[in-house]
């Protein structure tokens, strides 16, 4: 049977601290402590030892000390008057092996010490308290809040004895309840049964579907009788919405705002129709122009999934999925602030971006107001993707690449293992590399693109940032 801490003046913890203080060798504070294996042969590591010889006494390395594993738990037990005793609750305290191991690894980094303790399956000191506990063991400080004082051992022993007595009494009572080997039947308390029924009937809600969580009393909304809380009927707010919509429309008219699309005033006024509102909104959105080259890695089929989700799909595969029919304009959601884009938090320009692949599409986005002064849609172009071929820019507002990339941010996308197109070396472009096989690197490439685009837009066209 392993030795445990006792209430004597010299227990395991005191013996270890006294031996360290009396060591004449300051380099090795454990010089006065001898580690012995099962054959009483000296060893160098506590993990190889089965006992230690200190101060003329021999202790098993599983001997429980008065050093608690958590000073907070010990303080809580002390405040409640229920102190633990090493004999009754050995798992609450460190044993001699854990203490000696921590002393032997006192110069190790926290990570190396924790790994060593975990490998040996020995309790380790908390990282935040490790230095203070070592100072206490080495005699550099007189006390530590996580140590059960010798004066407390007697009260802890009394408490543990009382607990054992209660357990014995309960066992005796259970035995007495058995008469002639037949256990007495459990008697149900009628008052408890009524109380449980009342609680379940009044407060308990049995959830069966997601709609059950939204149930409520419908009497105030529909004018009907209240629906039972345990009913499976789902609340319908349609009547409430219809009764409130008239008030909303009246408030809009009072504020001078146009009524919703489809109402009589908006239908009779051109420019205020649903299509007119969409056209006006699009006139404020930034534009990104892709290369229409068949060798481009990003096209109208895969650009949305790449920039929004951070997932690259091969151009031909994306074309097949869409059955060869691409949208004339692709809308990209660019989140900013606390949002995440392409795997990077807080990256984006905070508004929708329109993506096209030709100069004609850019002109169409300008609408009928494109000829008005200051309404050139090319002023909203913030990025142009290129494969390094100058013919792409023949129909652009700026046909010369160097001039073009002074007014927009150039983006050059290539495979990570292919050489760079020599043309782009003289162009002011941001390079984005895509790995052929490692799809987990796509988010990193997309994050790089959004950071560069956000920085460029803030410096050159801050009016396009939401």
TrEMBL record:
Residues 65-87, 251-285 are annotated as: Disordered. InterPro entries: Cdc73/Parafibromin, CDC73_C, CDC73_C_sf. It is found in: Nucleus. Keywords: Nucleus, Transcription. Gene3D superfamilies: RNA polymerase II accessory factor, Cdc73 C-terminal domain (3.40.50.11990). The keyword Translocase does not apply. It holds the Pfam family CDC73_C. One of its GO terms (cellular component) is Cdc73/Paf1 complex. Residues 264-276 have a biased composition (Low complexity). Residues 283-456 form the Cell division control protein 73 C-terminal domain. GO terms for biological process: positive regulation of transcription elongation by RNA polymerase II; transcription elongation by RNA polymerase II. One of its GO terms (molecular function) is RNA polymerase II complex binding. Belongs to the CDC73 family. This is Putative RNA Pol II elongation accessory factor. It comes from Kalmanozyma brasiliensis (strain GHG001) (Yeast).
């Amino acid at each position: 049977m392993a030795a445990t801490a006792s209430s004597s003046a010299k227990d395991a913890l005191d013996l270890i601290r006294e031996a360290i203080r009396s060591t004449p060798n300051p380099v090795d504070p454990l010089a006065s402590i001898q580690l012995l294996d099962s054959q009483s042969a000296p060893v160098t590591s506590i993990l190889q030892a089965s006992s230690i010889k200190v101060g003329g006494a021999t202790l098993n390395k599983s001997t429980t000390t008065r050093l608690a594993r958590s000073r907070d738990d010990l303080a809580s037990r002390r405040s409640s008057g229920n102190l633990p005793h090493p004999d009754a609750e050995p798992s609450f305290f460190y044993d001699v092996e854990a203490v000696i191991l921590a002393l032997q690894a006192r110069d190790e980094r926290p990570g190396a010490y924790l790994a060593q303790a975990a490998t040996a399956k020995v309790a380790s000191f908390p990282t935040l308290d490790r230095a203070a506990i070592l100072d206490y063991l080495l005699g550099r400080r007189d006390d530590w809040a996580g140590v059960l004082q010798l004066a407390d051992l007697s009260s802890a022993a009394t408490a543990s004895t009382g607990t054992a007595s209660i357990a014995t009494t309960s066992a005796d009572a259970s035995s007495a309840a058995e008469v002639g080997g037949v256990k007495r039947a459990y008697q149900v308390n009628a008052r408890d049964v009524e109380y449980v029924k009342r609680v379940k009937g009044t407060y308990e809600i049995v959830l069966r579907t997601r709609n059950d969580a939204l149930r409520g009393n419908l009497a105030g909304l529909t004018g009907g009788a209240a629906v039972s809380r345990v009913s499976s009927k789902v609340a319908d707010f349609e009547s409430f919405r219809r009764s409130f919509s008239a008030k909303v429309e009246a408030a809009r008219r009072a504020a001078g705002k146009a009524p919703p699309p489809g109402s009589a005033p908006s239908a009779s006024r051109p420019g205020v129709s649903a299509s007119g509102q969409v056209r006006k909104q699009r006139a404020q959105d930034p534009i990104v122009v892709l290369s229409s080259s068949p060798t481009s890695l990003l096209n109208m089929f895969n650009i949305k999934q790449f920039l929004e989700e951070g997932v690259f799909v091969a151009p031909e595969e994306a074309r097949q999925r869409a059955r060869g029919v691409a949208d004339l304009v692709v809308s990209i959601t660019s989140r900013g602030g606390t949002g995440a884009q392409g795997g990077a938090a807080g990256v984006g320009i905070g508004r929708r971006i329109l993506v096209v692949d030709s100069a004609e599409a850019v002109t169409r986005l300008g609408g009928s107001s494109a000829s008005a002064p200051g309404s050139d849609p090319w002023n909203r172009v913030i990025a142009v993707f290129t494969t390094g071929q100058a013919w792409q820019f023949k129909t652009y507002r700026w046909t010369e690449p160097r001039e073009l990339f002074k007014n927009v941010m150039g983006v050059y996308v290539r495979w990570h293992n292919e050489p760079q197109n020599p043309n782009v070396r003289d162009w002011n472009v941001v390079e984005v590399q895509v790995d052929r096989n490692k799809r987990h690197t796509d988010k990193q490439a997309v994050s790089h693109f959004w950071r560069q685009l956000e920085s460029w837009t803030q410096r050159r066209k801050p009016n396009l940032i939401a």
